[in-house]
Design goal:
Elements lengths: L1 E6 L1 E7 L7 E7 L27 E6 L6 E6 L7 E2 L24
Antiparallel strand pairs: 1-5, 2-3, 2-4, 5-6
């Protein structure tokens, strides 16, 4: 099971394999959500994963104003819910991130 929370809107997508073309939205928020148990949409259904298999995941985040963050957690048999640690992730170098700064915010 996966959860997402953030300030402001956020979406959690997961593929059935390592292909981006098989992504499905599994959880989302529509505004500021400070914890993992605020709304039913921020929690996915139970999803079975195979140990050692790679999965494509995507997190989208939209900030309107003020502070911002996005946090994704999971829970699996034998473990409590926790933020997904970087040791379980790798970067797809084909992904380009854009971060708004004072110099590119358009005024």
């Amino acid at each position: 099971t996966f959860w997402i929370r953030g300030d402001d809107q956020s979406e959690r997508w997961l593929s059935s394999d390592e292909s981006e073309s098989n992504l499905q939205k599994i959880a989302y928020t529509t505004g500021y959500i400070p914890n993992f148990d605020s709304i039913p949409e921020q929690k996915s259904a139970t999803i079975s994963l195979v140990a050692g298999q790679k999965y494509f995941l995507k997190v989208l985040h939209k900030e309107r104003w003020g502070g911002d963050y996005v946090d994704v957690a999971w829970e699996f048999p034998g473990a409590d819910r926790a933020t997904i640690a970087g040791a379980f992730l790798f970067v797809n170098t084909g992904i380009i991130a854009f971060r708004r700064t004072a110099s590119n915010s358009g005024g």
